[in-house]
């Protein structure tokens, strides 16, 4: 029937905890403008780009937000962006102007969770600051001058080892965080061992480790709010 009903049905089948709400019901197609002047369309092609991405957009432009998504943001205690593919998973949500405006109006604390590793074809050579710059550029294209996410959660420095070396062979590098520079620019920076303590064959965000870091961030902001009220 619709994307929304399909997600609801699949969430029941997969026993998903919480609710998954699409940003829009519009049939949206992504496009990206590359540094070499080329313009490519489609999520799969954008994710395999051989030239740095300069700008992201969609057809149709300014798709309408799903009312349930706007309601969820309006009632949120905390708003998180990430982790995920920067240009094909995260920034597309910011192509929906009503969604951006709902986040801007919200009084809830907002936190950007940065990826552990760069993604070949999407974020080659980008550090944490580069990821944030891409978010700011996306918002600027909608005429939003202010920062929506002034706090960032990033990975502590990853230890050298065979696992990191294996990723480097495939073109991925640890996303470095220039904490001092980000703080000087007004960002709140949190570092945490988000990959978890258990040995694994892949570098992925460990759900428990990320949840603990997010809740530390939320509790700190909740205490500050009570002290200021």
Structural class: alpha/beta
Largest sheet: number of strands, sense, barrel closure: 4 strands, parallel
Intertermini distance: 47 Å
The helix content, as a percent range, equals 25-40%
What does the oligomeric state look like here? single chain
- Radius of gyration over all CA atoms, rounded: 18 Å
- Residue share in β-strands: 5-15%
Strand line-up of the largest beta sheet: 4-5-6-7
- Give me the number of helical elements: 9
Elements, N to C (H/E):
HEEHEHEHHEHEHHEH
Give the uncertain stretches in residue-range form: none
Overall pLDDT confidence:
93
Overall outline: globular
Count all strands and give the number: 7
How would you describe this structure to a colleague?
It contains 9 helices and 7 strands. It has helices spanning 3-13, 43-46, 67-74, 86-90, 97-105, 128-141, 162-169, 179-184, 207-228; strands spanning 29-34, 39-41, 53-59, 79-81, 110-113, 151-155, 188-192. The chain has a 4-stranded parallel beta sheet. Strands 2-1-3 form a 3-stranded antiparallel beta sheet. The protein starts with a helix and ends with a helix. The model has no long low-confidence stretch (mean pLDDT 93).
Compact description:
The chain has 229 residues and is of the alpha/beta class. It has 9 helices and 7 strands. Helix 3 runs parallel beside helix 5.
Annotation keywords:
229 residues; alpha/beta; 4-stranded parallel sheet; 9 helices
Outline the secondary-structure elements.
Elements: H1 3-13, E1 29-34, E2 39-41, H2 43-46, E3 53-59, H3 67-74, E4 79-81, H4 86-90, H5 97-105, E5 110-113, H6 128-141, E6 151-155, H7 162-169, H8 179-184, E7 188-192, H9 207-228
């Amino acid at each position: 029937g619709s994307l929304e009903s399909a997600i609801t049905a699949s969430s029941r089948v997969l026993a998903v905890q919480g609710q998954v709400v699409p940003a829009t019901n519009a049939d949206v197609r992504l496009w990206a403008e590359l540094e070499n002047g080329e313009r490519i369309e489609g999520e799969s092609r954008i994710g395999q780009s051989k030239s740095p991405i300069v700008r992201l957009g969609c057809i149709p432009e300014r798709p309408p937000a799903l009312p349930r998504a706007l309601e969820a943001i309006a009632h949120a205690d905390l708003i998180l962006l990430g982790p995920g593919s920067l240009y094909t998973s995260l920034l597309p949500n910011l192509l929906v102007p009503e969604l951006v405006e709902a986040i801007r109006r919200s009084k809830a604390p907002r936190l950007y969770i940065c990826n552990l590793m760069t993604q070949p074809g999407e974020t080659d050579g980008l550090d944490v600051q580069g990821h944030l710059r891409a978010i700011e550029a996306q918002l600027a294209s909608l005429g939003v001058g202010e920062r929506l996410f002034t706090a960032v959660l990033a990975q502590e420095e990853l230890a050298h080892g065979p696992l990191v070396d294996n990723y480097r062979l495939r073109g991925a590098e640890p996303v470095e965080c220039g904490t001092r520079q980000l703080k000087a620019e007004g960002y709140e920076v949190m570092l945490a061992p988000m990959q978890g303590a258990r040995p694994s064959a892949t570098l992925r965000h460990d759900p428990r480790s990320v949840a603990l870091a997010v809740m530390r961030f939320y509790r700190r902001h909740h205490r500050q709010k009570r002290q200021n009220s």
